[in-house]
Amino acid sequence: MAEDLVLERCDLELEANGRDHHTADLCREKLVVRRGQPFRLTLHFEGRNYEAGVDSLTFCAVTGPAPSEDAGTKARFGLSDAVEEGAWVATVVDQQNSALSLQLRTPASSPIGLYRLSLEASTGYQGSSFVLGHFTLLFNAWCPADAVYLDSDEERREYVLTQQGFIYQGSARFIKSIPWNFGQFEDGILDICLMLLDVNPKFLRDAGRDCSRRSSPVYVGRVVSAMVNCNDDQGVLLGRWDNNYGDGISPMFWIGSVDILRRWKNNGCQRVKYGQCWVFAAVACTVLRCLGVPTRAVTNYNSAHDQNSNLLIEYFRNEFGEIQSDKSEMIWNFHCWVESWMTRPDLQPGYEGWQALDPTPQEKSEGTYCCGPVPVRAIKVGDLSTKYDAPFVFAEVNADVVDWIRQDDGSMHKSINHSLVVGQKISTKSVGRDEREDITHTYKYPEGSAEEREAFTRANHQNKLADKEETGVAMRIRAGQGMNRGSDFDVFAHITNNTAEDHTGCLLLCARTVSYNGILGPECGTKDLLNFSLEPFSEKSIPLRVLYEKYCDCLTESNLIKVRGLFVEPAANSYLLAERDIYLENPEIKIRILGEPKQNRKLVAEVSLWNPLPVPLSGCTFTVEGAGLTQEQKTVEIPDPVEVGEEVKVRVDLLPLNAGRHKLVVNFESDRLKAVKGFRNVIVNTS
């Protein structure tokens, strides 16, 4: 009788599997593979090798604390010559001396997560069990049978593998790209993402069911949406919007997700202070890309927050046009969420593809602060019955705005305001390029088209279906030149009279600082023309000067100033309102790479900034990070004040470089100039 098989060791073939599964950065010390795709391992036996007619090998793969074959979290399978779709399979690839090379394939619908792989080897009636090791299973955008399959290799690289990108801020008329280090393959991030799944309330309530449902990207996306905020759970980020961040870190300070996720983990899953919409979205993008779900960050300009689902945002203003009601329904200058690519077997055909997910805590969904996934296609066609949270997302890009202005007798008069259109310039980073892609057309049909009207009819959006009130007098706010932080500048109320009549009244102009979510600060410029007249078929441009000394102490880190014009004609009982958000440009951070970028060579980055303000800067710091360029965030403090017109310059050592494209991201902070961002691409040649 043959002697028992004795396993000496198991080689998980980290390098080969990492290369084949696009997980090389994750496979340095442990096996990480993607589902539905074969991976290799080699069994080394003591004494003799496996004999097909003599020995029996049975593998067991389990995930979660209560593995079950019925739940799909446990699989037992032997060696097989045939590949059976939808089943765990092990096949022999090669056999030499005492080494047995195998290929294992997981079903494309397996739950993702950490697995333990064991082997039962029996010879005759005797057998032994061996633990082969642990491996992590991810979603697989390269596998046609996987729910997250993307058929474009360029898109897979952008939305799964790329560790750097941009978040778009500013305003619809001045879109500002903010560099971000997603860093989904940085040291420890995968373990943190798995920990995030394991502390979610659904896991704590029923771990077996939660682990089983991790086979679905719809389910995982919804869990991530809830766990990136901490409103209901041990989530990652605490949101704050009042500009008081002294006991934490300002949302504008962050330049990447890695530092945030590491802080959360290192502090025992305690919430990190603080986040706002783009931080929530960027962290969700990191987690979902890390787990293998193709994901991109998206910014919607003039984004509505409709609490009562009537698709209407109403502003109540006093006679000067100032908003009086302390309502939470607001138009955010911009709002960020993410889109993830997946099938929707729970919905009717046609709703696969990009799904909107919003981790910013705004409204509860099924009792939890999360939002989505909802098919972007359903938003476009106005199908508000679609899971999950279609009415809220539809309102974010389609709500109507009505302004009510109180008259002297206390009555409210509906004003005309064509300057604010909800849902504009919806933006994401282009595939393979550092440029913005406008994806508004994926959410909305062209304005005025028959398809748009059909979508509004399906959504019962009566406000949009009503005929718009037209007027012969129009006003818009125009920006002048030199809209830079630290400078004085002019804005203009441009008024046109397209009628054959004179129009006389008072023109009130006002500039106020504003946060990106619409919260107004103090006035920083006003002008009242009490006897303003427009001749027939004429136009006028009225300047308003805004001084640095007026806005310097109240400008938020959003760098936004809201300019409002109100033209009141008492004789005609007419109110004409126009508003525009002005973005003030920060100075440029210059980044030089000293030396030629070559593989395994250490480089130095030289980072500099010029002080554009009419006052010195003190408490200056540069913070630098980049996937593959720094081990962790590096902060360099400047001990001396930076005088007016002076340039401050520091040098930062970088890691020995791997081949490929990297992005160094920099943030500058000081007492009077905050959240200045910059980046530099570092392309490393293999020669």
TrEMBL record:
<dbReference type="InterPro" id="IPR036238">
    <property type="entry name" value="Transglutaminase_C_sf"/>
</dbReference>
<dbReference type="GO" id="GO:0008233">
    <property type="term" value="F:peptidase activity"/>
</dbReference>
<dbReference type="InterPro" id="IPR036985">
    <property type="entry name" value="Transglutaminase-like_sf"/>
</dbReference>
<dbReference type="GO" id="GO:0007200">
    <property type="term" value="P:phospholipase C-activating G protein-coupled receptor signaling pathway"/>
</dbReference>
<comment type="similarity">
    <text>Belongs to the transglutaminase superfamily. Transglutaminase family.</text>
</comment>
<dbReference type="GO" id="GO:1904015">
    <property type="term" value="P:cellular response to serotonin"/>
</dbReference>
<feature type="active site">
    <location>
        <position position="335"/>
    </location>
</feature>
<keyword id="KW-0808">Transferase</keyword>
<dbReference type="GO" id="GO:0005525">
    <property type="term" value="F:GTP binding"/>
</dbReference>
<dbReference type="GO" id="GO:0050568">
    <property type="term" value="F:protein-glutamine glutaminase activity"/>
</dbReference>
<comment type="subunit">
    <text>Monomer. Interacts with phospholipase C; promoting alpha-1 adrenergic receptor signaling. Interacts with PLCD1.</text>
</comment>
<feature type="binding site">
    <location>
        <position position="400"/>
    </location>
    <ligand>
        <name>Ca(2+)</name>
    </ligand>
</feature>
<dbReference type="InterPro" id="IPR013783">
    <property type="entry name" value="Ig-like_fold"/>
</dbReference>
<dbReference type="GO" id="GO:0005509">
    <property type="term" value="F:calcium ion binding"/>
</dbReference>
<dbReference type="GO" id="GO:0120297">
    <property type="term" value="F:histone dopaminyltransferase activity"/>
</dbReference>
<feature type="active site">
    <location>
        <position position="358"/>
    </location>
</feature>
<keyword id="KW-0963">Cytoplasm</keyword>
<dbReference type="InterPro" id="IPR013808">
    <property type="entry name" value="Transglutaminase_AS"/>
</dbReference>
<dbReference type="GO" id="GO:0010467">
    <property type="term" value="P:gene expression"/>
</dbReference>
<feature type="binding site">
    <location>
        <position position="398"/>
    </location>
    <ligand>
        <name>Ca(2+)</name>
    </ligand>
</feature>
<keyword id="KW-0342">GTP-binding</keyword>
<dbReference type="Pfam" id="PF00927">
    <property type="entry name" value="Transglut_C"/>
</dbReference>
<keyword id="KW-0012">Acyltransferase</keyword>
<keyword id="KW-0106">Calcium</keyword>
<dbReference type="GO" id="GO:0120299">
    <property type="term" value="F:peptide histaminyltransferase activity"/>
</dbReference>
<dbReference type="GO" id="GO:0006508">
    <property type="term" value="P:proteolysis"/>
</dbReference>
<keyword id="KW-0472">Membrane</keyword>
<dbReference type="InterPro" id="IPR023608">
    <property type="entry name" value="Transglutaminase_animal"/>
</dbReference>
<dbReference type="GO" id="GO:0051561">
    <property type="term" value="P:positive regulation of mitochondrial calcium ion concentration"/>
</dbReference>
<dbReference type="InterPro" id="IPR002931">
    <property type="entry name" value="Transglutaminase-like"/>
</dbReference>
<feature type="active site">
    <location>
        <position position="277"/>
    </location>
</feature>
<dbReference type="GO" id="GO:0014046">
    <property type="term" value="P:dopamine secretion"/>
</dbReference>
<dbReference type="InterPro" id="IPR001102">
    <property type="entry name" value="Transglutaminase_N"/>
</dbReference>
<dbReference type="GO" id="GO:1903672">
    <property type="term" value="P:positive regulation of sprouting angiogenesis"/>
</dbReference>
<dbReference type="GO" id="GO:0000786">
    <property type="term" value="C:nucleosome"/>
</dbReference>
<dbReference type="Pfam" id="PF00868">
    <property type="entry name" value="Transglut_N"/>
</dbReference>
<keyword id="KW-0964">Secreted</keyword>
<dbReference type="GO" id="GO:0032471">
    <property type="term" value="P:negative regulation of endoplasmic reticulum calcium ion concentration"/>
</dbReference>
<dbReference type="InterPro" id="IPR050779">
    <property type="entry name" value="Transglutaminase"/>
</dbReference>
<dbReference type="GO" id="GO:0003810">
    <property type="term" value="F:protein-glutamine gamma-glutamyltransferase activity"/>
</dbReference>
<dbReference type="GO" id="GO:0005739">
    <property type="term" value="C:mitochondrion"/>
</dbReference>
<keyword id="KW-0645">Protease</keyword>
